[in-house]
Each structure stands twice: as C-alpha cells, then as structure tokens.
Amino acid sequence: MLKRNMIMGILLGCVVPIGFTALQVSANTVSYQSQATVDFVENTDVTPPVNPTDPTDPLKPVKPVNPGTQGPLSIDYVSNIQFSQQQISGKDSVYYAQLDQLVDKNGKVGDYPNYVQVTDNRGSNAGWKMTVAQAQPFMNGKNQLDGTVIALMNGTMSGTNAHQPTPASKAEIKPDGQAVSVMTAKTDNGVGTWTERFGKDNTSAKQSISLFVPAESKKVAGAYKSELTWTLTDTNL
C-alpha cells in the first residue's frame, strides 16, 4: 500500500507541466481608430435670476426689473436698493436698505439679501471685473441730496463652480460718476453663474447696504431717486 501511494504521487506531479505546455497559444493584437467630435457655439441666452444663497434655485423678482443683458458675459440681475421712508433730520444720518423680495418656484414671496448676479459662458476663462458708479445725486424734482455715500458691505459669493470671484471688502459709491470695484475674477476664476449678496444671511444683510446723508444736505419732503450703473468688463480689454 505504501508503494502505491508513492507512485501515484509521482505520476500526478509529472502530469502538471505536461498539461500547461499543451495549453499555450499565441495571440494577435489589432487596433482601430474612430473619431469623437464636439462643436461649440457662442451662448447668447439670458440667464434668469437665482437664489443668492443657492444658485441652483431659480427666483423671480416681485417687482418687474430690467431683464439681464445678453451675451456670453452677462449681468443677469441687480437688486433695486430701497432705503424706505425716513424722517428729515438735521444730523448726520445713516439709513439701511430693505431686503430684496423675490418669488420662489412655488410662488412664495420671501426676503433675500440684496445681490448682483453675473454669468461667464465665454469659455475663455479670461476673468472679468464688475464696477458700479453713480453719475447723478439723489433727486426730488429739482431738489438734490448733496454729499451722500452708498456703501456696499459684507459681500459674500455663491456659485456652482470651485474657483470663485473676489468681492470688494467695501464699495463706497459717491454721486461723482467714479467707478468703484464690486468684484473681480482673475484668470480661470468666476466661470459660470455667480452671485454676490451683501450680507451672509438676512440678519446681516439688513445692515450691509447703507446710505449716509450729511446734516448739511438740504432735504425737502418727497421721494428722491438716483441711478446706479453696473459695468461688467472682460479684464483682457
């Protein structure tokens, strides 16, 4: 019995290399080239306003405003700044803007921080800059407010891409027509849709846009209005 077991073991050990040698087969390799194509065209769509804290959430203004600009580099929305009704005062005074009101996709009206919205669909990733200017003082008929300063503070960015623009730490706007920086996107930044809201949330937004009116400024009862001009520029120009 012992001799049989030893012989079987030897025979099995001899079968293995014979089997591997018999299975070896040479293989041929071939290759073939196909094509993949894509054709880009300039994007001229108008981008609608979005939630300043969540750019994936569309919103509509309660009060109609000018539509956004067309083209691949566009200003989509800017809140109208309302400082409400104030009592005439003989002292230096600071007034704060009301929150913006917008309608969500369910038709619900809500308060949101005042904000500006920009879209860069150029594809060049060249960067851009936004400025604002006030060419004329607040006017009430022939009456004007002298020495006013509008301050934009606590700029906070939201967007759908990683490389965000840089908001100005504070923008002070005087009625002298001088352009003031609001936000800047360097090369490879600010691609897609971005919002800059003034105030991280509604609480801070209530004191993030101010109007300074000096004591010496003559004030006549009535509504005063002015216009702000927002300019978006390709930084390569």
Commentary on this structure:
There is one protein chain. The protein is mainly beta. It has one domain. 11% of the residues lie in helices and 35% in strands. It contains two helices and 19 strands. It has helices at residues 2-23, 202-205, and strands spanning 50-51, 54-58, 60-61, 73-78, 93-96, 100-103, 109-112, 115-120, 128-133, 139-140, 143-144, 149-153, 155-159, 166-167, 170-173, 180-185, 192-198, 209-213, 229-234. It has a four-stranded antiparallel sheet, with no helix packed on it. Strands 5-18-12-15 form a four-stranded antiparallel sheet, with no helix packed on it. A hairpin with a 5-residue loop joins strand 6 (100-103) and strand 7. The longest helix is centred in the first third of the chain and has 22 residues, at 2-23. It is elongated and about 100 Å long. It starts with a helix and ends with a strand.
Features:
single chain; 237 residues; mainly beta
Write the layout of secondary structure elements.
Layout: H1 2-23, E1 50-51, E2 54-58, E3 60-61, E4 73-78, E5 93-96, E6 100-103, E7 109-112, E8 115-120, E9 128-133, E10 139-140, E11 143-144, E12 149-153, E13 155-159, E14 166-167, E15 170-173, E16 180-185, E17 192-198, H2 202-205, E18 209-213, E19 229-234
Antiparallel strand pairs: 1-2, 3-6, 4-8, 5-18, 6-7, 8-17, 9-16, 9-19, 10-11, 12-15, 12-18, 13-17, 14-16
